[in-house]
Amino acid sequence: MTLADLSSLGSFVSGLAVIGTLLFLLLQMRQTDKNQKALLQQGRSARVTELILKRTEPELSKALSRGLQADLTIDGSQVESINAFFAALFWSIEDSFLQYRAGLLISTGWETDSATLRGFFAVPACRVAWTMNRDLMSGDYRNYVDALMREIKPLAASDTLSTWRTLMTRELAAVAA
User: Fold this and answer.
1) Which residues are CB-contacts of 40 (< 8 A; sequence separation ≥ 6)?
2) Which of 31, 107, 148, 175 has the fewest CB atoms within 10 Å, measured from its CB?
3) Full pLDDT tens readout for the chain, 177 residues
4) Domain region containing 125
5) Considering the domain boundaries, does residue 9 fall inside one?
6) Is the pTM of this model over 0.70?
């Protein structure tokens, strides 16, 4: 084997090494992208879970219960609690909105947050809270939520306790049957 043959063989092996390195980097980039999206989803789940658990705090629970029933006799501190709860919800969903638009949040995560907003905007207390907080939100997100508000008609105030009792009675009847 001549020196020129060895040089050609070395160049060939070097080219294979470069291709192997590029393939490895491509796989690493894909894995990093998956890990980043998983971390964002975990953060989203943590935010949502924290908001849900916040609703179990006695004072907020009482205020939300009265607010969701459209009780006009609630006091100012209860209005503040309701408003703060929904403001936190709006900011949490704004974060998801921005992540989704940037391609960082998977579509199913955004679909869930969008459905949550749609459900809440049928509730008069949430609509009032949006009206009170909307000027604090970013333009594109504010426009998106304003469009939802126009699209979704408010429903009559709901009574979670009555709904729970009706559903529980139905389940207990199914158990007894």
Assistant:
1) 99, 104, 105
2) 175
3) 787 777 777 787 788 888 888 888 888 888 887 877 778 778 888 888 888 889 889 999 999 999 988 999 999 999 999 999 999 999 999 999 999 999 888 899 899 999 999 999 999 999 999 999 999 998 999 999 999 999 999 988 877 888 899 999 999 999 987
4) 46-176
5) no
6) yes
Distance CA 77, CA 34 (A): 43
Q: Domains in the chain: how many in total? A: 1
Q: In residues, how long is the chain?
A: 177
Place of tokens 């389940």: 171
Q: Which residue has the tokens 């192997």?
A: 20
Asked if the structure places residue 23 within a domain, the reply is no
For residue 86, being part of any structural domain is answered with: yes
Alpha-carbon span 30 to 153, nearest angstrom: 43
